[in-house]
Amino acid sequence: MNRRRCAVLTEAASLGLKAPDLQPGELGLWLCKSQDPEELTGSLSESELTRMQLLAPGAGRRNFATGHLLMAHAVQSQGPGLWVSQRCHRCGRQGHGQPTVVSSGRRAGWWVSLSRSSSICAVALASAPVGVDVELVDRVSAADIAHVLTDREWGAASHPALCPGDLAARLWCVKEALGKAKGCGLEGAERLDMLDVVDEASRRPESWVHWRGWSLMIFDGRDSHIGALAVRGGPLHVRVLRLS
Ligand SMILES: CC(C)(COP(=O)(O)OP(=O)(O)OC[C@H]1O[C@@H](n2cnc3c(N)ncnc32)[C@H](O)[C@@H]1OP(=O)(O)O)[C@@H](O)C(=O)NCCC(=O)NCCS
Ligand SMILES: [Zn+2]
Question: Which CATH number does the domain housing residue 181 bear?
Fold first, then answer.
């Protein structure tokens, strides 16, 4: 076993991360509080280490190190030889952007997504294109996210008397999860009116709702966080692997 693979195993074990063998009809959702990066850096690739060191010490480094360990561990748990490779759809460079699960340099039959907020990291892994996002509810206001809202969404989210205060966070999470599953990020999100589907998902938390060939879900991220999942096609059984 190579050095990095071994470090992923050791560091994941030190955090008590679970390694389920997911079935094709299942989606794994790992949620973990950010940990001290000094304990975790053996599992990072050189480019990940370089990126982490560009971040200011503190929460940013903690959630970067934890998130990338979580992602490597989730992928590695599904079979020998599986790794994550990242490529940016904007600049075409490797080492950042959408993560892809690869084996011997080729795309494998798994899809993975990562989100890191100030204190929580989330990773989703599935046998279909998948996206996850977690956000601290109070940190998202309608004004902050106006650039990804349609006029109708803006009208609802900016009107606190007419809607729950966390509508902005819900819209943002769902749009980000969908954008990650598609690989385009938030590009074009301002043209997608998702108010009705977000409303439906909010009324039925932790259940799938269907929208234009996608299954979407809003979940409670705990510690004042909210989260969303998007997966292409039919709903998958979600296995939540939560660590305090
Ligand atoms: C990336 C984005 C979808 C979500 O970012 P965010 O809410 O700030 O952060 P999150 O922690 O929830 O998600 C970040 C993770 O999403 C993943 N990601 C980045 N781009 C992605 C894409 N196009 N598709 C799917 N996943 C992507 C990465 O794993 C990233 O983590 P990492 O930076 O540690 O590797 C959104 O902010 C975006 O579209 N940004 C544009 C960035 C960009 O185009 N940069 C160009 C650089 S040349
Ligand atoms: Zn780039």
Answer: 3.90.470.20
